[in-house]
Amino acid sequence: MGKSSKDKRDAYYRLAKEEGWRARSAYKLLQIDEEFNLFEGVTRVVDLCAAPGSWSQVLSRVLIKGETFGRAGWEQKQEATHRHVLGLTKEEGKEESSAAPAVQPPKPRENVRIVAIDLQPMSPLEGVTTMRADITHPSTIPLMLKALDPETYNPDSPSSSSPVDLVISDGAPDVTGLHDLDIYVQSQLLWAALNLALCVLKPGGKFVAKIFRGKDVDLLFAQLKIVFKRVRVAKPRSSRASSIEAFVVCEDFCPPEGFKASLDKPLGAGTQLPTDAAAVRGEKQVERKVRADGAIELDFGTDDEEEDDLEEGGQRWIAPFLACGDLSAYDSDATYKLPKDRVSLDPVQPPTAPPYRRALEMRKMAGGAYGKTKGRVVKETA
Ligand code: SAM
What domain of life is recorded for the organism (predicted)? Predict the structure, then answer.
């Protein structure tokens, strides 16, 4: 086994096709759940930036079909599939299976509601309402609320809609390779996701979102601590170590009394930041007031001298960082030896409207080598 960060088709890419996931990202959510028990008691979820839909698949299989993917489920799946991924012989696979834990019977949940939103169209999934919309646009809020409660939604009283337990967002822009620009655009998606979450989360709810770890990411964590009691950063084993991607896991949503989220006055740039580390850690009482204009104001009870120190001294709150996914799980930066007779599987769900389609059409019109490249391009993006 050698290391190569250039090998885009890692063990998770192959495993995803083998286990029927639309994308390898499914393992990121599963491994975050393994560490944070994300789906405990969850029945209503919004999945933002959801296409092609592997996170929605996870939601559908866990909440609707009642499948288990905890450590036990994961070990079992691995045992069943690593013969293909790692090239073990049948006998070797069998030896390990004797130590595998017993399969949990599926426990479907009641009154499940899953809404998935993306700019791109998404193929249907059992029990998932899919919507094509831009999460940065205010018009997406009423569409999302209606999708959550189609029978009872009242446009004149949107706040009467039932809240959700969990909002997840795997949003990513088309990366340009210009790091600062990519981080900035990604952070805008994150703020959009957070502001949508603020509109629908119930107190005690959870929010999980992809982040790019740029130099000012601490400020973002401090902002999240305004409205969530626990904020941690997760790096699943299936997310390459070489990538700046990580996931912020926010638990126990606790909006200040009277706080009404709106995309007209979104939380984000301009919100007063908590500069007092003790307050951010919850070791000190912070009074949170909602101003008449809807903005949140924080009173740290610090005297002027103390405040000066904070500005100069740069007290910073560092969010706990957790690597998640069992150590025995595949390493996404490693290259594994494959058996000679291994057959490459087709993508589980070919992209419905890939952004590169137009480029291929243009190339075809210009008499380019469309026929030759089509298969290769489609496979690479699956
Ligand atoms: N979680 C998905 C899965 O498991 O299949 C993968 C998500 S993919 C990494 C990122 C997605 O973000 C893309 O499908 C893209 O269309 C979507 N996206 C980017 N900007 C968006 C926006 N403004 N509104 C909605 N979706 C957006």
Answer: Eukaryota
